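$ run holo --ligand "NAP" --emit C-alpha cells
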Amino acid sequence: MRILVLGGSWFLGRALVSDALARGWTVTTFTRGRSGMPPEGAEHVRGDRRNQDDLARLVESGPWDATIDTSVYEPADVLAVLDALGTSAGKYALLSSVSAHRDWPHEPVEEDSPLWPSRVDAAETDPDIAAQSVPAQYGILKAGCELAAGTAPLGTLIFRPGVILGPGEYTGRMLSLFERAQRGGRWLLGGSPSDQIQPVDVRDVSRFVLNRIAIHDEGAYNVVAPREPERNYGALIDACLEVTGGTAELVWGEPEWLLEQGVREWTEIPLWRTPRGTWAVSGQKAADAGLHCRSLRETVADTWADFQEHPPVPHPRQAEHGMDPAREAELLEQYDLFRAR
Ligand SMILES: NC(=O)c1ccc[n+]([C@@H]2O[C@H](COP(=O)([O-])OP(=O)(O)OC[C@H]3O[C@@H](n4cnc5c(N)ncnc54)[C@H](OP(=O)(O)O)[C@@H]3O)[C@@H](O)[C@H]2O)c1
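-- output --
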C-alpha cells in the first residue's frame, strides 16, 4: 500500500505512520513542520494544507492508494485537499470525532445517530457557528468535514474516535493524572470508581484504521473502547498510582456537589464528565469489524514508560487539565463538612 498521511508528526498521525511503516507500506506525510518531524522512513513533504501552492507540490509525490486526514479542522480544508489531489488521493479516510454526533455527550449515540446539522462551506467564523459553545463548534465543523469527505472521487472512510489516550498523548490528560498520582495525599475525584469509561488506545485506533484501509472498506465507524465493567474510572486511577508508585487516599466526590462548587468537568478532574451519554457511545460496528481494545492498565503503563523517554511537548491544552493543589485542599475540607452534615 502507498498511503498519504495528512499530519503524521504528532499523536494519532505519528502512530499511523509508525504502524504503516512496520507493515512495509510506503508512507508520505504532509505537515508544516511545527509539531516535530514524522517517524523516520516516511517521505515528508513540508507544507500548509491551506496553501494552494503547497498542495500542488504535494501532488507530485502521489498517487496513493489512500489518504488519511488527521489534520483537518474545517470542511474547506477537506475540499481544498480533494480539489488539489483528485484521484491521486485514492480512498479518503477522515479522522472525525464522536463530537460530530449532535446528541453527544448528552445522550448515548451509535453510528446512525444524527450528526450536527452542517454544511460543506461551514466555517468557524460564520456567525451562527461562532455563537455556539466551543465543543458544539468543533462538532459542527467535524460534521461539515464528513459532508465534504463524501465528495471524494474514490470513496470515503470516516472514523469518529472518542477520547484517545496512549503513548505520545499531549493534551495533558494523562500528564496531569500522573502528576497528581505522584503527589499522593487525599485525591479528589468525581463520581464512582465503577463508572465505566471508553478511552481508546492510539495504537488500537491506528491498527483499526489501517486494517479498514487495507481491505478498501467504506462507511463510518465510531472508534471507542467497549463498555465493560472492568473498564472503569477507578481502574484508570489505580493504574496511574501503580505505574507512578504514588499512594493516595481517593475521595470520590458526589457529582452534584462538585458541580455546585464549580468544578470543571472533563478538565479539572480529567475525563470526569456527568452527561449520561459521555461514555455511552456504541462502537459495536467497529468491534464487529475487528477493533480490538487493549486494557486501560496497558495503555496507562505504556504511556508512563513513553513519558520517561519522551516527555510530551508543551501544548496550550496541558494547562487546562488538573486541579490547583490549594483549591483541591480547600474543596476536600468543604467536602468533609458537607459529608458530616
Ligand atoms: N486526540 C484525541 O483524543 C482525539 C479524539 C477524537 C478525534 N480526534 C481527531 O483525530 C485527529 C488527529 O488528532 P491528533 O490529536 O492526533 O492530531 P494532532 O496532534 O493535532 O496533529 C495534527 C497534525 O496535523 C499537522 N497540521 C496541523 N495543521 C496543519 C496545516 N495547516 N497544514 C499541514 N499540517 C498541519 C500537525 O503538524 P504541524 O503542526 O507540524 O503542521 C500535526 O502533525 C484530529 O482530526 C482530531 O480532531 C482526536
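-- notes --
The CA atoms of residues 193 and 234 lie 4 Å apart.
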